[in-house]
Design brief:
three-stranded antiparallel β-sheet, alpha+beta, Nucleotidyltransferase, domain 5, five-stranded mixed β-sheet
Length: 197
């Protein structure tokens, strides 16, 4: 690849995870950015933004720049990625070399959505960007040998999407994605509790 770090990013609707080759998972932060609504200035990213919620004046708004597994606010996503990548791309390599990034995307994604993810990563400081479908990444992470001719069914429930795929010979034979996922589960539980109590 190159002299820069090799970084894997799970760019989730609810949480961003960053893996650095040789170091493991080095960052796990909420996909939240706190923005001053009057000036448009970003005040905090990730956990710090999440902690500000409800404790600041009304002019501070929490923005979740990803909706249903894809980028809904390009500029805020770019700022969030730049902050997170900057936190992990440190030291000698980080100072002089841009990282190579592999980022997971939903199993079913449009070319426009793919380009938005690639562009956001490049603008945030990546030298090269590679995309991997979340069901493939989940299978590899679970230790499944995806090179086999037999099929393995993967169900990946995230915050914004649920991806379902049958994988054989390193490719999805069948795949589908639905916008019913963790966020919708949370909303249903909250509605139920409010009705009952």
């Amino acid at each position: 690849m190159g002299l820069g770090l090799n970084i894997g990013i799970d760019l989730g609707t609810a949480t961003v995870l960053i893996y650095v080759e040789g170091r493991g998972v080095v960052l796990r932060e909420p996909s939240v950015v706190a923005v001053n609504t009057r000036t448009g200035r970003v005040l905090a990213v990730g956990e710090r933004a999440s902690l500000m919620l409800g404790r600041t004046p009304d002019i501070v708004k929490a923005v979740r720049p990803l909706r249903e597994g894809v980028i809904s606010d390009f500029q805020v996503t770019e700022i969030m990625l730049k902050e997170f990548i900057g936190r992990v791309n440190t030291g000698f390599l980080g100072r002089y070399f841009k990282p190579t990034i592999v980022v997971s995307v939903p199993g079913v994604i449009t070319p426009v959505e793919q380009k938005a993810v690639e562009d956001a990563c490049r603008h945030a400081g990546a030298r090269e960007v590679f995309l991997i479908r979340e069901p493939i990444a989940s299978a590899i992470g679970a230790g499944i040998d995806i090179t086999q001719a037999s099929g393995s069914m993967i169900i990946d429930i995230g915050g914004g999407t649920t991806d379902i795929a049958v994988i054989s010979l390193c490719r999805p034979v069948v795949d589908a994605s639905t916008k019913v996922a963790g966020d919708k589960f949370d909303e249903a539980i909250i509605r139920y509790i409010r009705r009952r109590h």
